[in-house]
Amino acid sequence: MKGLIDALIPPAPCLHCQLPDPEHLWLCEGCRASLPVDHDAPTVLEGGLGVESSFYYGGACSVLIPFAKNPVEPRLYEWLISQSSQRFRASALVPVPTHWRRRVERGGCHTTGLSQVLSKRLNIPVLHALERTRNDPKQSQLDGLDRRQIQKDAFRGRHIELPKGKILLVDDVLTTGSTLRASAQALLRDHDVEDLGAWVLARRI
Questions:
Q1: pTM
Q2: How confident is the model over 4-61, as pLDDT tens digits?
Q3: Is 71 exposed, middle or buried (0-12, 13-18, 19+ CB in 10 A)?
Q4: Which of 11, 31, 115, 134 has the fewest CB atoms within 10 Å, measured from its CB?
Q5: 199 in Cβ contact with 118 (< 8 Å)
Q6: C-beta separation of 168 from 23 below 8 A
Q7: What is the pLDDT of residues 112-151, one digit of tens each?
């Protein structure tokens, strides 16, 4: 019976190598084993913001992460985070916000999805303390200089109280750091934050 079902409905291919694999929704066994887990020290951005990451943006991650946000796929985020043994402490998670138009296009906010998965795993509350002020072009379409220029004044704080202790900004990918720097500047400007850090799912090699 299984052979007949497979013949009528072939197993979905691995998103990375495209080989059919009926045992998993996204990756074959070989690609799962080769996920580029990040064991290195946090990246420190200009201004002193420390950014922790679970993976390097390469190999299968370069396929899975874009797939997970178009449309937003919380189950994939949950599975990816489960592949990392990374643990950290924080008083609150603050998603780097996307514009409401982008959320409509994607069927949700990918950074909120990531934050909710982390919240469930680490028992840390999610607080939407920032909002995006405009719908800028997609970051993947811009070079480093344009990314830095376009993020200026792209965020502002919302009227929400943040707890004492470490606050973690949450985003999916660290490339130039311009988005996280702009988010951090807005959070520090509009909120009373003494200890600020950031976490991303992956950073580019």
A1: 0.87
A2: 444 456 677 899 998 887 567 789 888 988 899 999 999 999 989 999 999 999 999 9
A3: exposed
A4: 134
A5: yes
A6: no
A7: 999 999 999 999 999 999 999 887 766 555 555 555 555 6
How crowded is residue 77: how many other Cβ atoms within 10 Å of its Cβ?
Answer: 23
Q: Which of 77, 64, 91, 80 has the alpha carbon at shortest distance from 164?
A: 91
Token pair 């084993």: residue: 33
Question: Is the N-terminal amide bond of 11 cis, ω within 30° of 0?
Answer: no
Phi, psi of 170 (to 5 degrees): -125, 130
Q: Locate tokens 């965020």: which residue?
A: 155
Q: What three-state secondary structure class fits 77?
A: helix
**Which 3 state secondary structure label does DSSP give 66?**
helix
Instruction: Decide: 43 and 203 in contact? Cβ < 8 Å.
Output: yes
- 49 DSSP assignment: -
Average pLDDT, the chain: 87
CA–CA dist 74, 6 (Å, integer): 27
For residue 18 the two structure tokens come to: 């495209």
Which residues contact residue 85 at a Cβ distance below 8 angstroms, ignoring those fewer than 6 apart? none
* 3-class DSSP state of 130: strand
